[in-house]
Amino acid sequence: MSGAGVSDVPPVRIDAVNGAPVRAAGDYVLYWMVASRRTEWSFALERAADWCRELGLPLVILEALRCDYPWASARLHRFVLDGMADNRRRLRGARVRYYPYVEPSPGAGRGLLEALAARAAVVVTDRFPSFFLPRMVAAAGRRLEVKLEQVDGNGLLPLAAADRVFARAFDFRRFLQRELAPHLLEPPRADPLGGPALPAPVEVPEGVRARWPAASPELLGGEEGLERLPLDHSVQPVSRPGGAVAAGKALDRFVEERLDGYHENAIAERQAWNPGRLGEHASGKRQGWWGMDEGAEAFLDQLVTWRELGYNMAARRDDHDRYESLPEWARKTLAEHAGDERPHLYDRAELAAGSTHDELWNAAQGQLVREGVIHNYLRMLWGKKIFEWSPSARQAAEVMIELNDRFAVDGRDPNSYSGIFWCLGRYDRAWGPERPIYGKVRYMTSASTRRKYRVDAYVERYAPPAGGQLDLPAS
Question: CA quadruple 135, 136, 137, 139: dihedral positive or negative?
Fold first, then answer.
């Protein structure tokens, strides 16, 4: 491993973005926080702190938010700003300089990274395999004249630990059962800044502060300023707060209220779990491989297998968010049924407004518009019906991505694209009998969903009145 020789961050998680050298005469180490926007359990922040100790230099953390990313809205901005406010509070008094920047107009932040990097000895950033971030980091690597590293903190399995794309959850689960255990023994530090004290923090250069002023506490705290930013204000913030603190509380509530056997401790601790058991039965089966009770096993299969399966594809296929990434069998059967008559067709505006004949689907869209999320099972039905009601499967994928990325606070993520393309056959198999429109792609109906779940209260809460539509101003 080159540099930061005392680093505990596994080398498999560290990737040099460019070939530039460490600048021995630098004034500080710069951590450019772009994806792992948190101050705990962060491999990237840990790596930056390790560089500081090796070089004897202070740490500057830049967390920036541009205003022209795809689907930029008051909702998505507020969600990120909540996390920035968390970081500002948690780093107050720490031996670092935290610099939050919120772009006031498109392009206003151009040059900020280069200006800070010009005084840096090394720049560390997050590796994230989706949305516009890979292109942004690669472009930065070409521009910067100092070493830029990206650090993978996306999951339990390092992205580089798998050498291929897995087409099925079964095969990926079997791979995890064989290979995951050693990586579980190399977790990030709970406190990335813990250990030997960092050098005393320095001020951000005056010229940077003058040209790119730091975001005010009022903007980060949600008290004022968001309404003046050039965003889509038709997509309003949701009551669900963003940030690592809120995420931790949400996880605590989930495991306390909905996961049997969990109270105060982590799942693995509660279950007296031994990571050495993972490789004992590499069968690919969902149940039994964690050596925990049924509720914990099901939860971890979603959290680990399915989540990291999507990251696996995103890291290895640039087209993971496009129709061409579907398996060959799915594209073939969808093409064979492309000309099938669609009993119902809705355009994007009608779908966005929840104005279809299906009140359960309208309710799912209503929850997405109002709260930025959809009930997990209904999200699958939501996607299947968009496919059924669109002129083509390709157009359906485009609509699903647009609605998801515009409204969902958990959108623009490998998991989003996994779910969307699962509706069209990804990570699935051919099903029979072959049906109109769907061909061999798995079929779902609102009627069957109603038989499985009690949805009346859900429909009453989220669906617009009969014949009406969601209160959705034009963007």
Answer: positive
> Other C-beta atoms within 10 Å of 281: how many?
13
* Rounded distance between C-alpha atoms, residue 336 and residue 197, angstroms: 64
Distance from C-alpha of 27 to C-alpha of 29, rounded to nearest angstrom: 7
**Cα–Cα distance, 301 to 446 (Å, whole number):** 26
Task: Let me know: does 39 contact 87? Beta carbons within 8 Å.
Answer: yes
- Taking residues 179-184, report their average pLDDT: 95
250/241 Cα distance (integer angstroms): 10
pTM of the prediction? 0.92
**Which candidate, 338, 437, 429, 348, places its Cα nearest to that of 384?**
437
Is the previous residue joined to 217 through a cis bond, with omega within 30 degrees of 0?
A: no
**Spatial distance between the Cα atoms of 59 and 208, rounded to a whole number of angstroms:** 16
- Whether residue 268 contacts residue 185, with contact meaning beta carbons closer than 8 Å, is answered with no
- What Rg, from alpha-carbon coordinates, does the chain have? 23
Task: Give the single-character DSSP code of 224.
Answer: S
Per the CB < 8 A criterion, the answer to whether 252 and 162 are in contact is no
Q: How distant, in Å, are the alpha carbons of 74, 278, 315, 359, 464 from that of 355?
A: 24, 48, 37, 9, 8
- Is there a contact between 287 and 294 (Cβ–Cβ < 8 Å)? yes
| Mean pLDDT over the full length of the chain | 92
The token pair at 334 is 């969808």
Candidates 301, 324, 289; CA nearest to 426 is: 324
The 10s digit of each residue's pLDDT in 449-461 is 999 989 999 999 9
Please list the residues that pair with 122 across neighbouring strands.
29
Nearest to 104 by CA among 235, 226, 236: 226
pLDDT of 266 strictly over 90: no
**Count, residues in the chain:** 475
* CB distance 429 to 441 below 8 Å: no
Please give the angle made by the CA atoms of 348, 81 and 415, to the nearest 5 degrees.
Answer: 50
Higher pLDDT, 299 or 444: 444
How many Å apart are CA 183 and CA 290, to the nearest integer? 15
User: Which residues are CB-contacts of 374 (< 8 A; sequence separation ≥ 6)?
Assistant: 364, 367, 368, 382, 408
Tokens encoding 321: 């968010």
Domains and CATH numbers, the chain: 1-154 (3.40.50.620), 244-316 (no CATH), 323-462 (1.10.579.10)
Please name every residue paired with 232 in a beta bridge, in sequence order, or none if there are none.
73
**Residue in the structure block whose two tokens are 């998680």:** 13
